Amino acid sequence: MKNNMGLTDKVIRLLFAALVIVLFYTNVISGTVGIVLLVFAGIFILTSLLGFCPLYLPFGINTGKKK
């Protein structure tokens, strides 16, 4: 797996995930929508920590630094 995410991309994903988690635990979002958003938040956290997004591959997207 090559890294295909830049720092800005990682930070945005982590901030979105944190926001969703806070909104879920303060009961602003709940039910099925809340659970689906929590799953996406988990995926965003995982991809941010790995620096790799599998959805970028088919589209040839790379937000990381060019070598």
Summed up, the helix count is: 3
Q: How much helix is in the residues? A: 55-70%
Average pLDDT works out at 93
Would you list the SSEs in sequence order as H and E? HHH
Query: Alpha-carbon distance between the termini?
Result: 16 Å
The total beta strand count reads 0
Which structural class do the helices and strands define? mainly alpha
Rg estimate, integer Å? 13 Å
Are there runs of 5+ residues with pLDDT below 50, and where?
A: none
Could you say which overall geometry the principal axes of the C-alpha atoms support? elongated
- The amount of beta strand, in percent, is under 5%
Profile the largest sheet: none
What's the gist of this structure?
By secondary structure, the chain is mainly α. Helices cover 64% and strands 0% of the residues.
